[in-house]
Design brief:
The chain has 482 residues and is of the alpha/beta class. It has three domains: 153 residues, N-utilizing Substance Protein B Homolog, Chain A; 42 residues; 206 residues, Rossmann fold, CATH 3.40.50. The protein is 44% helix and 12% strand. Strands 5, 6, 7, 8, 9, 10, 11 and 12 form an eight-stranded mixed β-sheet that branches. Strands 2-3-1-4 form a four-stranded antiparallel β-sheet. Helix 1 crosses helix 5 and helix 4 packs across helix 5. It is globular and about 75 Å long.
């Protein structure tokens, strides 16, 4: 009997027993007399997969350089990005289908061939690209690099993949929805089960889980921050062709296919920067929070790299005649912060936020955007869902507690700390603030996000892609009372 699939039912193994050719070259063919012309968009997407696998590259950082190297613009660049990002997002589902179509376990498939198989399978299952084009272009890329034997193996597997569409593969391989709704949702929306469980825990059950995972599995709209004091959101929307954001007064949403963001004049001139609307909202909440006593204008960003929130907070500080100290443990990222806040009343320190060489008991407002698993921004970091592991959470939670203790040492009595994570995992959110020290009061953050719906019972705020169109940012406001 063949090995059981994820549903518990026997898998059909495709390969030589299903009249698909094995890894050898087709009989009677000597191969092309000249190298085929390879599609540069697909080559770029495959290069991204290789960079993520071999160098632990971040897709959003690696892709721009790859596009420039292949001289791709507009439609070709958009295709390469969609194929690369989409393949990375869907990796778990694609692997399950590929494994059902080959008679060898995935660990025994050469890594570069598995990259190509994933890219081809993504085109077959999740795009409108004609099946023959998806198969042929992938096979030719493999042939150019690995020869006819490797190309024959990839050809056979992809032709087996193409026998069913995504819905039919899900019906065969996914855990039954009636018996295992969480596992079914995780499989359908290509998330590791432990992440789906973390989302369900934060949502209070599985009722919204499908919607949350579906939103997380969709390529997001680009959000811009209109730099306060430099340009309004309405002006930025006009010059970029975007729309003012629904909740942030400084946000703009760009339409799909807006091209290379760095080439927009407003971004190139420093009038705007890329920043998720959720990040804007939690930063604005800190700036709006009431204090016990006057605001003397001493603000602190304790984990500032790479500088997005420090830019917004620094611009708001400039409008309020305040000044911001920004701390970042990495010297490289501290340099990025310095560039981002150029011209603003911001002093940057390269130091560990737990031991920053700054005074205690003096800051009116402290932002702690703590290092976290990043589960709230998986839609923007397509490789992260497969790179993160459940065991990462404990170490990060320990760091978060230590950083929060430091933030509460720096804030003055009557001042406010904004504890922020880009993760809904309960161990990184409510689990941290529930262990706060005495003399610290939780402030209801919901009124400080005016117009934002579905914020729950408070006093903390958890944003969600499926509810708010933002990253899944968590916010807790803590006022030091003693």
């Amino acid at each position: 009997m063949s090995a059981p699939g994820r549903s518990g039912r026997p898998q059909r193994r495709r390969g030589r027993d299903q009249n698909t050719r094995g890894p050898g070259p087709p009989r009677g063919r000597t191969g092309p007399t000249r190298p085929p012309e390879l599609d540069p968009a697909r080559l770029a997407a495959l290069e991204l997969l290789t960079a993520v696998r071999t160098r632990d590259a971040y897709a959003n950082l690696a892709m721009p350089a790859i596009l420039r190297r292949h001289r791709l613009r507009e439609r070709d660049a958009a295709l390469a990005t969609e194929l690369g990002y989409g393949t990375l997002r869907a990796q778990g589902l694609l692997d399950a289908v590929i494994e059902a179509c080959t008679d060898r376990p995935l660990p025994r498939v050469e890594a570069h061939l598995l990259d190509a198989l994933r890219l081809g399978a993504y085109q077959l299952l999740r795009t409108r690209i004609p099946p023959h084009a998806a198969v042929d272009t992938t096979v030719e890329m493999v042939r150019a690099d690995g020869g006819s034997r490797a190309a024959g193996f990839v050809n056979g597997v992809l032709r087996a993949v193409a026998e069913r569409d995504e819905a039919k593969w899900v019906a065969e391989l996914a855990p039954p929805a009636g018996e295992d709704p969480l596992g079914h949702a995780a499989f359908v929306h290509a998330h590791p089960r432990w992440i789906a469980q973390a989302f369900a825990d934060a949502l209070g059950g599985t009722e919204e889980l499908d919607a949350a995972l579906a939103a997380d599995d969709t390529r997001p709209v680009v959000h811009l921050l209109a730099r306060p004091g430099e340009i309004t959101a309405e002006e930025l929307a006009l010059v970029t062709g975007g729309e003012p954001a629904p909740y942030s007064p400084y946000g703009v949403h760009l339409p799909p296919g807006s091209g290379e963001i760095g080439e927009l004049d407003a971004v190139a001139e420093g009038l705007a920067t890329v920043q998720d609307e959720g990040s804007q909202l939690v930063t604005l909440a800190l700036a709006r929070a009431e204090l016990d006593g006057p605001d003397e204008g001493r603000w602190l960003d304790l984990c500032a790299g790479p500088g997005g929130k420090a830019t917004l907070l620094g611009a708001l500080a400039a409008l309020d005649d305040a000044a911001l100290d920004a701390v970042e443990v990495s010297e490289h990222r501290a340099e990025l912060v310095s560039r981002a806040v150029a011209g603003l009343p911001v002093a940057v320190y390269a130091a560990d936020g737990r031991e920053a060489p700054l005074p205690h008991d003096v800051y009116d407002r402290v932002l702690l955007d703590a290092p976290c698993t990043g589960l709230g921004a998986l839609r923007r970091r397509p490789e992260a869902r497969w790179r993160r592991k459940p065991e990462d959470v404990a170490g990060l939670a320990r760091l978060q507690r230590e950083l929060l203790a430091a933030a509460l040492r720096h804030v003055r009595v009557g001042g406010t700390v904004a504890y922020v994570t880009c993760s809904p995992h309960l161990s990184e959110t409510l689990g941290i603030i529930r262990r706060r020290r005495e003399g610290v009061q939780l402030v209801d953050a919901r009124p400080l996000l005016p117009g934002v719906p579905e914020l729950g019972d408070g006093p903390t705020v958890q944003l969600w892609p499926h509810r708010h169109g933002t990253d899944a940012m968590f916010l807790a406001l803590l006022r030091r009372t003693a």
